[in-house]
Amino acid sequence: MNDTSAQSKVANGGSPDVLRVMSYNIHHANPPSKPGLIDLDAIARVIRESKADLVALQEVETGTKRSGGVDEAKLLAEKTGLHYKFFRAIDYDGGEYGIAILSRFKLRNVRLIPLPQKVEAEDRILAYVTVKVDKQKIIFANTHLDATRDHGNRIVQMQRILKEFENVSLPVILCGDLNSVAGSGVIDLLDAQFKRTCVDNCPGTSPQVNPRRTIDYIATRNIKWPLLEYVVVEETYASDHRPITAAFSKQQE
């Protein structure tokens, strides 16, 4: 498949030859322009329009008071027609707060790995699953690194993530809000073991309006499928981050 035909299939959507991946910090489904409102329909719309097969979500809640006690991951799965798994990072506001994975494929070998800290801060986790895409098993991973100004936490957290996958032979797709920009120690560590889907002149992902920083990533390891496109979706309403997507050709070059 040449690049032109592959890009066309991506644009038209629905091709069985393309795997689409999304990473999205959803800000607990609260549009920044509407404090206190929970708009899961807006997040679900963004996911559906992306036609993503695998979705990594950060800042997801279940049972919290500020989110009206709902299970956000479950409702998003119902609204998008995808399988799901919520992963708790902390207890919060009468419920739980963490990350989630949505998938068009059945979730297998579900894992949650607590991440370390150098200084006390909010607990962070790595979550991953194995999915079977056609005949290929893939590990799909999601994380949200520490947001404090102390970079030491993010460094040790990335080191733990890399250790988890260093001896894994399966293809790995790692997504997440890493709260780190290119050129930082965290991203230098990532680059030593993974290949980012955008390396140079990457559009900003945060904040959602006039984004100044690129801190959300999709990165791969042992993937033989060629990258067809990487997109920062110009979505400015649903969250305080812009979602990112990557599309891979299942037909190897």
Question: Mind explaining what this structure looks like?
Answer:
With 253 residues, the chain is of the alpha+beta class. Helix content is 21%, strand content 34%. It has helices at residues 3-12, 40-50, 72-80, 151-165, 185-193; strands spanning 18-25, 54-62, 83-92, 95-103, 108-114, 125-133, 136-144, 172-177, 195-196, 216-221, 227-232, 244-249. A 6-stranded mixed beta sheet has the order 3-4-2-1-12-11, with helices on one face. A 6-stranded mixed beta sheet has the order 5-6-7-8-10-9, with helices on one face. β7, α4 and β8 form a beta-alpha-beta unit. α2 (40-50) packs across α3 (72-80) and α4 (151-165) runs parallel beside α5. The longest helix has 15 residues, at 151-165. The radius of gyration is 17 Å and the shape is globular. The termini are close together. Residues 1-13 have low confidence and may be disordered.
Q: How many distinct helices? A: 5
The chain-level structural class is alpha+beta
N-C termini distance: 7 Å
Radius of gyration: 17 Å
What can be said about the biggest beta sheet?
6 strands, mixed
Give the overall shape, derived from the CA principal axes.
globular
Query: Low-confidence segments, ≥5 residues, pLDDT <50?
Result: 1-13
Could you write a compact summary of the structure shown?
The protein has 253 residues and is an alpha+beta fold. The protein has 5 helices and 12 strands. The strands form 2 sheets. Strands 3-4-2-1-12-11 form a 6-stranded mixed β-sheet, covered by helices on one side.
